[in-house]
Amino acid sequence: MKNLLNYQTSEYDCGPVSILNGIRYLFDREDIYPDMIKFIMLYCMDTYNEEGELCKRGTSPAAMSYVTNWLNHFGVIKHFPLYCEHFSGECVTLTPGSPIMDALKKGGVVVLFLYLEIGHYVLLTGIEDDRVLLFDPFYEEEDDPELDEEYFTEEITFINDQPKKANRSVALERLNRTSKDYYEMGELPCRDALVMYNTSLTKL
Prior knowledge:
alpha+beta; Cathepsin B, Chain A
């Protein structure tokens, strides 16, 4: 049975929660090893903020790269059908032929770094025409009177009926922008993505 996708518990755990959501999306609950959950949480949230407080700057690209390698090693040792790839910089785009677009078209998912006031990770789960379906682990309610005005655009749509797949639909053009507004990836050198496949479903 597939789990519902999850929301972050604090202001800082969007990275590990999005990785775990990728595993939840790709695999049934009874197939997921508990040690995967333990070590994903252990290896993420590796940064310090300006006040020297651990975890309060979220998860670094270096940690995402390490988790990618760890999950691939885990998959080999445990014969678990998970394969991951880590991409950074100019190849992280949502354009035809890019690694991110190819992964989504093959049935993979993508943990993507973008902006939501500050740097933030979400899970991309699919493409519909000129929009991307994603699950944002930062919980918001569409009818909240204090909802940030940046959400009020046709380029960002709330999805409320797909809790195992997506809670936002975002225009591809918006995600690809080099600025740092809501659901934009920002400048090319700073981009980061972790691609995940269930290799029993996707032939690579």
